[in-house]
Amino acid sequence: MCDREKELFLLDILIAIEKIRDIAKEYENGDDIQYSYRDWDAIIREFEIVGEAMRYCIQFGLFEDERDKRKVIDFRNILTHKYFGIDSDAVLNIAKENLDWLEDLIVKRFMEVDKDKREEVLKYMIEENHYLPFVLKKLNQLKNESE
């Protein structure tokens, strides 16, 4: 088991989603992003974080191991272990079109966390991500909704 505060994994997912969206908005097709190795590697890494953090969320009992949540982990496993045959158009499509449900799920669950704990982990993550304005915007929005 991990020593980290379990609620931080929810925010890890939310932040990774924001980073994925920030990268993906610059691309129209999978080939373009795949040939931009820094952005391709970054988007894959962020999807890996989403899957790994979801695994911890399930392990800590923040979510049940339901089909949709299991798909998030399975997608991470494919990206990590079968990297040689990844469909870049599919990855870009997921990045642009299929993350809203996950964001909604994460925000909903985060809002169910004890208010003091929410404030504590939000403060920590805001400090940790102070250099990323688009992430700060999302975290501050969540903070405002939380009050």
Helix count equals 8
Strand content: under 5%
Shape descriptor reads globular
CA-based gyration radius:
15 Å
Percentage of residues in helical conformation:
over 70%
**Please, what is the average pLDDT?**
89
Give the topology string: H per helix, E per strand: HHHHHHHH
The total count of strands amounts to 0
Distance between the termini: 31 Å
Number of domains: 1
Low-confidence stretches: none
Core attributes:
mainly alpha
Summarize the structure.
The chain is an all-alpha fold.
Describe the structure.
This protein has eight helices and no strands. The protein has 147 residues and is an all-alpha fold. 29% of the residues are buried.
Task: Present the secondary structure layout.
Blueprint: H1 6-24, H2 30-34, H3 37-59, H4 67-81, H5 88-97, H6 100-111, H7 115-128, H8 133-146
